Amino acid sequence: MAAMARTTDGDGTPVPQRLLAAATRLFAERGYDRTSVQEIVEAAGVTKGALYHYFGSKEDLLHEVYARVLRVQQQRLDAYADADEPVERRLRGAAADVVVTTIENLDDADIFFRSMHHLSPEKHKQVRAERRRYHERFRALVEEGQQAGVFSSATPADLVVDYHFGSIHHLSTWYRPDGPLTKQQVADHLADLLLRALRP
């Protein structure tokens, strides 16, 4: 993907980004299984050769729709986790941030979870490993606070993390940009709920 920043069209948009944008829109409108490679390349204004050069297959496009979001979230979580701040501030920041980044990418996440059964066993395993790495880093923050006595140990860290991410996974069913709460307000409420659940 290193060539992504160099190979562009007339308006400067990298070709892989154009392909992803077209695929995301078509997957959302028609569904993954009802979208053809030809429709994607026509919508992106490129050739099939360009798609196969960057992604190899339609399945690779579907994987990248989700993987690009997860990469951003992992980088941001790592920054929070590594910050020189008390663990409760780091956890609250990470807990709110994953809500905001999920809301900012709701379409991508929704497309992926509706279509991930189309992935090959190998790609499915890769996605699970990527998600597990994120969850384990998040859980480590909870465990750090529990071991330090800052958080209650009454509830196992795994359940605490599942509780928070369960709320996040349902965002696409009810959150609306024109609703009564902004994405930051939703993030703050859910992060506060998490911290209250961990209060000694």
UniProtKB/TrEMBL annotation:
PROSITE patterns (alphabetical): HTH_TETR_1, HTH_TETR_2
Q: Name the InterPro entries on file.
A: DNA-bd_HTH_TetR-type_CS, Homeodomain-like_sf, HTH-type_TetR-like_transc_reg, HTH_TetR, KstR2_TetR_C, Tet_transcr_reg_TetR-rel_C_sf
Q: Which UniProt keywords apply?
A: DNA-binding, Repressor, Transcription, Transcription regulation
Name a GO molecular-function annotation. Answer: DNA-binding transcription factor activity
Matching Pfam families: TetR_C_24, TetR_N
Signal peptide range equals none
> Record keywords: Ribosomal protein included?
no
Q: Which domain of life is it from?
A: Bacteria
Which positions make up the DNA-binding region?
36-55
Q: Which GO biological process categories is it annotated with?
A: negative regulation of DNA-templated transcription
Q: Which residues form the HTH tetR-type domain?
A: 13-73
Q: What protein name applies here?
A: TetR-family transcriptional regulator
Species name for this entry?
A: Streptomyces pristinaespiralis (strain ATCC 25486 / DSM 40338 / CBS 914.69 / JCM 4507 / KCC S-0507 / NBRC 13074 / NRRL 2958 / 5647)
What lineage is on file?
A: Bacteria, Bacillati, Actinomycetota, Actinomycetes, Kitasatosporales
